[in-house]
Design a protein that fits this description.
This protein is α+β, with helices and mostly antiparallel strands. Helix content is 36%, strand content 11%.
């Protein structure tokens, strides 16, 4: 999820989530995301991720009807190429291999 530096209820009013246009913010999901990153037990982590999905599905302000597939190409001499889940291409990891 994108960061939110200021929220009112479940609406992000300042931060990356606001800037990117989703405006979504849920403190419970943010807490669960932090917990699952530290969880060593696979079953417990799966349970936390399912809980995140259930909360997000209940809160969802819209349902995307389609999602495009994004591609990024580079010469063999370029390493570090990857698309983020937000479909953004970060340039900082790019380097000559």
């Amino acid at each position: 999820f994108l960061g939110c530096t200021q929220a009112r209820a479940n609406l992000c009013v300042e931060g990356a989530s606001h800037f990117q246009g989703t405006f979504y913010h849920n403190p419970k999901i943010n807490a669960l995301l932090a917990q699952q990153r530290q969880e060593g037990d696979r079953a417990r982590r799966t349970q936390q991720l399912r809980q995140i999905q259930a909360i997000a599905a209940a809160d969802v302000p819209f349902i995307p009807l389609w999602q495009t597939r994004e591609y990024a190409f580079a010469r063999k001499s370029i390493a570090g190429l990857r698309l983020e889940p937000t479909q953004q291409l970060p340039y900082s990891p790019l380097h000559k291999s």
